[in-house]
Design brief:
This protein has a domain of 116 residues: Rossmann fold (3-Layer(aba) Sandwich). The protein starts with a helix and ends with a strand. It is 49% helix and 20% strand. The model has no long low-confidence stretch (mean pLDDT 94). It is elongated. Strand 4, helix 5 and strand 5 form a beta-alpha-beta unit. It is an alpha/beta fold. Helix 2 runs antiparallel to helix 3 and helix 6 packs across helix 7. The strands form 2 sheets. Strands 5-4-1-6-7 form a 5-stranded parallel beta sheet.
C-alpha cells in the first residue's frame, strides 16, 4: 500500500469514527437553563461583601428553591431532543453539595437529559478552563454540535478551540 493511499484510509477511518458518534448538544445550567438570579442576590446580600462567603452560599443547596426554569432555553433543549440529539448538562455546580438538589429540580421541571457533569469540591478553575476540559472529554464519546452558555469567556474559548461547534450565548 502506498503512503498516499495509507493516509487516505487513515483519514477515512477518522471521519467514520466521528460520524458514528451520537450527536449531542451541551447546555450550561445556571444563567442558561436555570434562572438563579434570586439565589445569587440572596447569597450576595448574606455574604456582605465577603467573596468566599458568597461562593460557599451560592454553591450550596441553601437558596436553590428560589431557582426557576428558563422556558425559552428549555424549548431549544426539547427541539434538539426530538431530533435525536443527546442532551448533556455541563454545570458549574458542585457535585458534593448540589447534585442531589439539582437532579431533583430537573426531575420536578421535567427536563430531560442523558448526562450531567458537576464540578468536584475544591475545583476552582475558571469556568472557561473547566468547561473546555470537560468538553474535550465529551468529544471522545459524542459529536458535539452546539453549546449553549451564558459566559462570553466560555463561548470565546469554545469558538477558538472548536470552531465547528455552534457556540450560543443565552
Amino acid at each position: 500500500m502506498s503512503k498516499e493511499l495509507k493516509k487516505e484510509v487513515i483519514e477515512a477511518l477518522r471521519e467514520l469514527k466521528e460520524a458514528i458518534k451520537p450527536k449531542a448538544v451541551v447546555f450550561g445550567l445556571d444563567r442558561v437553563l436555570v434562572d438563579s438570579s434570586k439565589r445569587y442576590e440572596m447569597c450576595r446580600e448574606e455574604a456582605g461583601g465577603y467573596e468566599k462567603a458568597f461562593w460557599d452560599c451560592f454553591l450550596s443547596e441553601k437558596y436553590m428553591d428560589y431557582d426557576s426554569l428558563r422556558d425559552d432555553v428549555t424549548r431549544v433543549l426539547r427541539s434538539y431532543l426530538v431530533k435525536g440529539y443527546r442532551i448533556i448538562i455541563l454545570a458549574g455546580r458542585v457535585r458534593q453539595t448540589q447534585a442531589r438538589k439539582t437532579r431533583s429540580q430537573l426531575k420536578r421541571w421535567r427536563i430531560p437529559y442523558h448526562e450531567i457533569i458537576f464540578r468536584e469540591k475544591g475545583d476552582h478553575r475558571e469556568d472557561h478552563v473547566y468547561k473546555l476540559e470537560e468538553l474535550a472529554k465529551l468529544m471522545g464519546r459524542y459529536r458535539i454540535e452546539a453549546l449553549y452558555d451564558g459566559s462570553d469567556k466560555v463561548l470565546e474559548a469554545v469558538k477558538g478551540k472548536y470552531p465547528r461547534i455552534k457556540a450560543v450565548k443565552v
